[in-house]
Design a protein that fits this description.
heterodimer, A: 304 residues, alpha/beta, Rossmann fold, 8-stranded mixed sheet, B: 592 residues, Pyruvate-ferredoxin Oxidoreductase, domain 3, 4 domains, 7-stranded mixed sheet, 18 helices, globular
């Protein structure tokens, strides 16, 4: 099978026509001072610039939550959709115009809670998009309740006696669901983040970057003080990104060492590449409408 | 059967898995190839094996609009069918059955029993062979030459090999010959009209209408009775260049549809009430983002899982109120399959022009019914108008997606275009897309945007043809219906006229916008108004009152899962004209 290249080529060092600042949106973020999402936004703007992308070539698609306000803060086409639904919407956009660079963004509640079903299926379909989850292990916009990634025992307004539930592990979940690019970042390490984002956007297929993006207002268990001494880059450990078993083992570690970096990457045709309807004729969105005379005749012929 | 109009109906009854569809399809094909008009209704249940399936195929040399009131020919594939239906077969009818396995009951006087010793006639040949033997008998009773059936059987079975073709042709021949020798054929043989017709289901009509309208993206989650749209789209996707996706749930369906539509594709999805409930939030998103996208709700009997394989018009208020908040939407309830086909391009043009969601309210009766169609009546190349759509790049800037224009319509640019970078959001937003919700609350801007969107629908009635009375203006009774009841009311009106009662029909197709003034005027000047609805609470009646302030004189409502038959309405009108009642609930006499 030949795999078609559905996005423009992205060399490692393109002639940077735009700077990170050119990707600043029309509005200043209204996140709390110290919020991890600032680092994620900054990293994404830098990654887009360094990849040589232009604002009109990108669509950022988000759900609902603090982090889902991101499309308003970046200079690109944007869709600020419904709670939990960015991946479904983004899949529609991607298939309708497969020449666009699609970046879905959101939080842990949005992606792994209310949107969990779409997370499973978008991963297994290998839709060519990058999914950036700002994981703060809390519901922030609703003023502090447990999220699907909150640790067992965590005390919040909805769990005053401590959560009794096991958290979801986004990395192992993504791997088991068939994602072809699975990474974890930390908002406190901007350089590493930009590197992961560039790789993820360049990757053909579904890319997840789960990013520790601390909520300084509502989650005092998992703040910068918690992460800083624990995070270790897989890149420094010689991790084999084709070894899914080792990736899962390392992803499950949650103690003195918590790994960040690229856990798994594999080459596999994307949904768009496997769909013959996209073979010729450019993006569906720009094709001429209406049936040809021959198509009309075929329809009638099959009815008779 | 009357001498002036050939009007003939046959039924095949049995359990699921007994192979009713195959003889049904073969007969339908034979009938339409002879140019006969056809209307088929299949009563079934949500099981793959067992239960009771009852397929009714009505044919005529003139246009027909319902499955009618009576049966001329019945094939019983099991004892259960014989027990349930024999008593309803009137004088002159024929009842065909396998006499090896089925005991006839007591038939009405004048009904002919036609026993078939299937084993003897077929020489064995498996469980399904009784169907083929019976088909041969049908052809003889209908006065057709055997060759017609031989061709149809060959076409049906040739993919499975010559042996099966030969076996079926031989069995059919035996059934044919046996009938020639033993049974009296119908007095009037099946006529022929000069021009062959085709068959389609309502779901196929909806899908074809979408394809003709330029749909490039279709996604769905399977749900009866809407799945037929998915099947047609999937089969034709590659030939027609349509992206067809089956996705994880109807929430994903609706959200994906909004994404594809926003990116620029004409986008369609179909479901039934339960799935539509899951789609609801995304329909509101399309309203807020001003994205043109079309949703089909094929109604079935509810609430909840309800009766999955039965028809009802029970989702009117669901679609009227789908999603929170005030927003603009079109809602259209097609009257029949051809209407379902025709409304798709019109609805897509409207949703593109006014940048809002459109909803088609079909039901099981239309969507799963099989009908004849003259292909010359299908406009496969309708006019396509995408409204104020920007699709060429620009070097300029200052584009505002939600510009506060006089018409309320803001030119729409597709993602990917240089010079038009913008955000769309489910939050309330300003002309330049910047969210208002996170600003200090700004009542003036909020009001401006609400009014901008609402302005799109000022005088929207004028964009659509108003409903008109069918029949004499000064009729004694005006029957009001909406959507799929059109055909059965039309036939009831014809029957009433034959009985000396002048009647007319006001058929409503466009629910939103409702031409309240035109409808109100008709209702006000009618002598006696009766609303006919396939639901319990009079959903359209309540909507009509809310929009016009007008009431009506009577109601005929059916909510047992089965569609109206013309005589149900005729009898309801009679008793209401007599003045004894103003609310009739017809009894479903055929127990299916």
């Amino acid at each position: 099978m030949t795999i078609r290249d559905t996005t423009q080529d992205m060399p490692d060092q393109p002639p940077a026509s735009l700077q990170a600042k050119d990707f600043k949106g029309p509005v200043e973020p209204d996140w709390c001072p110290g919020c991890g999402d600032f680092g994620v936004l900054k990293g994404l703007q830098k990654a887009c610039a360094e990849l040589g992308l232009l604002p009109h070539q990108i669509v950022t698609v988000s759900g609902i939550g603090c982090s889902s306000n991101l499309p308003g803060y970046i200079n690109s086409y944007g869709m600020h959709t419904l709670h939990g639904r960015p991946l479904a919407v983004a899949t529609g956009v991607q298939l309708a115009n497969h020449e666009l660079t699609i970046i879905a963004t959101g939080g842990d509640g949005d992606g792994y809670g209310i949107g969990g079903n779409h997370f499973v299926h978008t991963a297994r379909r290998n839709v060519d998009l990058t999914y950036i989850v700002m994981n703060n292990q809390i519901y922030g916009l609703t003023t502090g309740q447990i999220s699907p990634t909150s640790s067992k025992g965590m005390k919040t307004k909805s769990t005053p006696f401590g959560s009794v539930e096991m958290p979801v592990n986004p990395i192992t979940s993504a791997i088991m669901n068939g994602a072809t690019f699975v990474a974890r970042g930390y908002s406190g390490d901007g350089k590493h983040l930009v590197d992961l984002m560039k790789k993820a956007i360049r990757h053909k297929g579904f890319s997840l970057i789960d990013i520790f993006s601390p909520c300084v207002t509502f989650n005092h268990d998992n703040d910068y003080k918690f992460f800083k001494p624990r995070v270790k880059k897989l890149e420094d450990e010689g991790h084999d990104t084709s070894d899914w078993k080792s990736a899962c083992e390392k992803a499950l570690m949650w103690g003195d060492t918590i790994y960040t970096g690229l856990f798994l990457q594999k080459e596999q045709p994307t949904l768009g590449q496997l769909e013959p309807v996209l073979d010729e004729g450019g993006p569906l969105a720009y094709r001429s409408l209406g049936l040809s005379k021959e198509q009309g005749q075929n329809i009638i012929k099959r009815m008779m | 059967m009357t001498s002036e109009k050939f009007d003939f109906a046959l039924s095949i009854g049995g359990a699921a898995g007994q192979g009713i569809a195959t003889p049904g399809n073969i007969l339908a094909r034979i009938f339409v190839r002879r140019g006969l008009h056809l209307y088929a209704y299949n009563a079934y249940q949500s099981i793959i094996r067992g239960g009771h399936i009852f397929l009714t195929v009505r044919v005529s040399d003139q246009e027909i609009h319902s499955h009618g009131d009576k049966l001329d020919l019945l094939l019983c594939l099991n004892q259960d069918t014989m027990n349930r239906h024999l008593g309803l077969m009137g004088p002159g009818s024929r009842v065909v059955f396998n006499s090896d396995t089925i005991q006839p009951g007591k038939a009405q006087k004048g009904a002919h029993l036609c026993p078939l010793p299937v084993t003897e006639l077929s020489g064995g040949g498996g469980r399904m062979i009784q169907n083929t033997v019976a088909l041969g008998t049908f052809l003889s009773l209908l006065g057709l030459e055997f060759q017609v059936l031989e061709e149809a059987l060959t076409l049906q079975f040739k993919r499975k090999g010559q042996e099966l073709v030969d076996q079926n042709v031989a069995a059919a021949r035996a059934g044919f010959d046996h009938a020639q020798e033993n049974f009296e054929p119908f007095a009037v043989p099946l006529p022929r009209r000069p021009k062959a017709l085709a068959v389609w289901t309502g779901n196929e009509a909806l899908a074809m209408g979408g394809a003709a309208a330029g749909v490039k993206f279709y996604c769905a989650y399977p749900m009866s009775p809407a799945t037929g749209v998915l099947h047609w789209m999937s089969k034709n996707a590659r030939d027609l260049g349509i992206m067809v996706r089956q996705v994880e749930d109807e929430i994903a369906v609706a959200n994906m549809a909004v994404g594809a539509a926003h990116a620029g594709c004409r986008t369609l999805c179909a479901t039934s009430g339960g799935g539509f409930a899951l789609m609801t939030e995304a329909i509101g998103m399309a309203g807020m983002m001003e994205v043109p996208v079309v949703f089909i709700n094929v109604q079935r009997a509810g609430p909840s899982t309800g009766v999955p394989t039965k028809t009802e018009q029970g989702d009117l208020w669901q679609v009227l109120g789908a999603s929170q908040g005030d927003f603009q939407r079109f809602i259209v309830a097609p009257k029949n399959a051809l209407d379902a086909f025709d409304i798709m391009p019109e609805l897509f043009n409207l949703t593109d022009k006014y940048q809002c969601p459109g909803i088609v309210l079909s039901d099981l009766l239309i969507s799963e019914g099989t009908f004849s169609i003259d292909p010359d009546k299908m406009n496969l190349h309708p006019e396509i108008d995408r409204g104020e759509l920007i699709d060429t790049p620009s070097q300029g800037n200052g584009y505002m997606r939600y510009k506060n224009t006089e018409s309320g319509i803001s030119p729409r640019a597709l993602p990917g275009l240089e010079g038009y970078v913008h955000l769309v959001a489910t939050d309330e937003h300003d002309e330049d897309s910047i969210l208002l919700s996170d600003e200090f609350t700004n009542p003036h801007k909020r009001r401006m945007m609400v009014e901008k969107r609402a302005r799109k629908f000022k005088d929207i009635e004028k964009a659509i043809t108003a409903p008109q009375l069918e029949g004499p203006e000064d009729a004694q009774v005006t029957l009001i219906g909406w959507g799929s009841t059109y055909g059965v009311i039309k036939e009831a009106v014809e029957q009433l006229n034959l009985q000396g009662i002048t009647a007319n029909q006001l058929a409503i197709k466009w629910i939103v916008p409702l031409h309240a003034e035109a409808v109100g005027e008709i209702v006000s000047r009618s002598k006696k108004t009766i609303i006919v609805e396939n639901n319990h609470s009079g959903q359209f009646y309540r909507y009509l009152r809310s929009e016009t302030g007008l009431s009506v004189d009577g109601h005929i409502r059916k909510y047992d899962g089965e569609p109206f038959m013309p005589h149900h309405i005729v009898e309801g009108v009679m008793e209401q004209l007599a003045g004894t009642v103003d609310h009739t609930v017809p009894i479903q006499e055929i127990m299916v």
